[in-house]
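REQUEST FORM: STRUCTURE PREDICTION
Request ID: SP-0412
Submitted by: Lab K.M.
Chain count: 1
Length (residues): 520
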Amino acid sequence: MATQRSTQLQALESTETWDIIIIGGGATGLGTAIDSASRGYKTLLLEQADFSQGTSSRSTKLVHGGVRYLKQGNISLVLGALKERGLLLKNAPHLVHNLPFVVPNYDWWEGPFYGIGMKLYDVLAGKQGFGRSKVLSRDKTIDVLPTLEPEGLVGGVIYYDGQFDDSRMAVNMAQTAAEQGATVLNYMRVEGLLKKNDVVNGVVARDVEMNQEYRLRARAVINATGVFSDSIRRMDDPDAPSMISTSQGVHIVLDRTFLPGDTAMMVPKTDDGRVLFAIPWRDRVIVGTTETPVDDISLEPRALPDEIEFLITHAGRYLVGDPTEADVKSVFAGLRPLVSSGDSKDTAALSRDHTLHISAAGLVTITGGKWTTYRKMAEDTVDQTATLAGLEEHPCVTRELQIHGYHQQPESFGALASYGSDAPRIKALMEKRPELAEPLHYERQITGAQVVWAVRQEMARQVEDVLSRRTRTLLLDAKASIEMAPKVAELMASELDEDEAWQQEQVRRYTKLAEGYLLS
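STATUS: Completed
RESULT:
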């Protein structure tokens, strides 16, 4: 089934009243759309930009229980996340896989201390564990992480967690929602809420591409907009107090030579108490993250100089090949919606658990949480919303629902592994049009067929959609992505029936955006 914007618009225009309208096309909104539609509710999801354009495409790429929450004593959060981690691996094996992590020990007490903590992690995971943790000798630690700083190294602890591709997951979730009967639209901005007798009963939305306004009725409206949650709540109640405190997390991307092999490194406590990861991802290494309180909420946040310095300094402290700014292939920032507790400015101490709020006018807001627990957040939200709206009760079925692209041996598709069951159709497109099989850049494996596929099947509308979220090129090599932009624009223009002026404007806008991911 093709997920095309034109067919989604037709469904939008032919429906008089929805059961549930969801505002926000990140992990939480898309998960909620899948849950709602799979229960049989008439579901509409509206996203102001592209799916997962904000926070949900800028994560550390981990599907995890949250080792650091053990230290905080939040066992229930860890236990719930570990269960969801297991379901994600089962339902989306083309995007989620097992990843070993090593905690290097530079003091004699760290091995026993972290070893006991990881054994508890194993116990909590139970049958859904990804592997058993164990204490490593100094030599074995260096064998596993050959570029680890050896001076003062005592040993290490190895444990197992999950890794995934966040925005590819989001795209496949949009497709899954559509296959379940939902209507999902990107570039459809909600500008207001509709009410009847002081109860929210719809939204005012604008098609950003066509500049057309829609007044859409629903029995319930869900606000799943992450860091933008408070702005939607104030469409309902201008005096609504803030629920969200925003934290910025920054990552730098390095060449794999800095951390060869398939094992990640986790530093449980940096100078300021943060957890630091160095993680192999595709042909790169992601180093992150930071925890910086910010007030400016933007779809395109920018890393601060001290955040970049922090990551480069700490990477150099633990890796033999001390990275410099010149080694950074890309730097990306994401904003986390943290549920605020009083006047606390310590974002590391604010809640990562999700919060469900229903206003006096019936606006449902779901916020907080993390990628790993999106499915459970969605289940809780739809349970409450269906009761609120008086919808016929239907049980949640998403524990067993496979995500679009599901395939048990995705590695057999090579460079197209993350497409899962869609990979043969992309290969067929290459065979039909051999020119689309050629890589678009000598340093990246991205082909013209992937661009065409993104437009035809994955609702990509702009060059950024393809290079940032459908193929991840912006995050993996910002400079190469800029050089690819003209060819991507040309291929997209042919598919979208756009002219030369559109191509030039797309390249100009993309270049300006991508330059913000470069340090030099």
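NOTES: The chain has a mean pLDDT of 93.
Reviewed by: T.R.
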